[in-house]
Amino acid sequence: MTRNEFIRRLKAGLKGIPEADLADIVADYDAHFDAALAEGRSEAEVAEALGNPGRLARELRLEAGIRNWQSDRTPSSAWAAVLAFMGLATIDILILLPIVLPVLGVMFGLFVAVVAIFIAGGFVMIAGPFSGFPGGAFVAVFAGLGLMAAAVGAGALLTLVGIWVVNALMWFGRLHYRVIEPAIHPADPARA
């Protein structure tokens, strides 16, 4: 594989990341080619030593996703990090999917239930005093407020659990990368 083909495939795998990050990555791999060519190695040898550009792009996407998640803990950065992890761990997905999907499904169901309880609490608080709520108007108002407070507390706990799940996936992604990287690039001087 030539330098241009390697860089083209790497860029294709990194499509969608910020332009500045892409330029830095391409410059870094251009430097690898320049240094190796100065030592008398061919472009094909350098490309082989660097590895599969598609795989490198997935690893770099995971690292970028983890950095983005660590600096900006938003649902979109969490989703991007999880997708980058899934791109890297394509083989492990067969093992992780039966674990991750039910966890995400249960969490989504619990979030829906929390929203429903919050809405029900608001309904009890507003309509309860006028509908002959058992115990009277004050009981209806306080029961509604209690339901709404419980929903907010449960939502906060679910958010913390969601953050923990994303952090666990990112930890596994980094562990996965550290474990398989030596197998992909055993004692590779171009990676040093």
UniProtKB/TrEMBL annotation:
User: Does Transmembrane helix show up as a keyword for this record?
Assistant: yes
Q: Which residues cross the membrane?
A: 77-100, 106-126, 138-166
Protein name as it appears in the record: Membrane protein
**Pfam families given in the database record:** HAAS
List keywords of the entry alphabetically. Membrane, Transmembrane, Transmembrane helix
Q: Cite the source lineage.
A: Bacteria, Pseudomonadati, Pseudomonadota, Alphaproteobacteria, Sphingomonadales
What organism is the protein native to?
Novosphingobium colocasiae
Q: Which domain of life is it from?
A: Bacteria
